[in-house]
Specification:
Layout lengths: L6 H16 L6 H15 L4 H4 L18
Subcellular location: Cell membrane
Subunit structure: G proteins are composed of 3 units; alpha, beta and gamma.
Membrane topology: Lipid-anchor
Amino acid sequence: MAQELSEEELLRVEVERLKKEVKNPRAPISKTGKEIKDYVEAQAGNDPLLTGVSEDKNPCKEKGTCVIN
């Protein structure tokens, strides 16, 4: 079903894609980078990789030991 497009058709498709992309709102990385940093720092207290998991909420904790008599 895939058809070969001529070079002209490929360029038209590329131009249409670029026209759509140019309409996307842009923000400077200096602003968005700071926002991301602030968000990550605000959420750090809830991150189990940073704070650890309490023993009572740890799903990987051994439930008990196996004793064979």
